[in-house]
Structure formats: structure tokens, C-alpha cells
Amino acid sequence: MQDKFQTMSDQIIGRIDDMSCRIDDLERNIADLMMQAGVEEVEGENKTPASNKG
Length: 54
Description:
nucleus, mainly alpha, HS1-bd, Heat shock factor-binding protein 1, stress response, 1 helix
């Protein structure tokens, strides 16, 4: 019984590690695409340019 739980636990941890690598790759790809498109990272969705304030 203990061996079965250990095997399942190892499989879950392996899947979590795999998903973490995929997320890291996705974040890198998004950053590359944003750089190619000339888009700067914005901290908030509703950020307005300084020239439009007033």
C-alpha cells in the first residue's frame, strides 16, 4: 500500500515539474513575442500614456 502511494506521489511530482517547465517556456515565448512586437510590459491593464493625462 505504501509503495502504491509513493509511486502515485512520484508521478504527481513529475507532472508538476513538467508543467512548471512548460509554464516557464510559455512565459519566455510571450516575452519574446512582446519584444518583437515592440510592446512594453504594463503593470496595469488600464494604464494610460502620460500625454493623455490632464
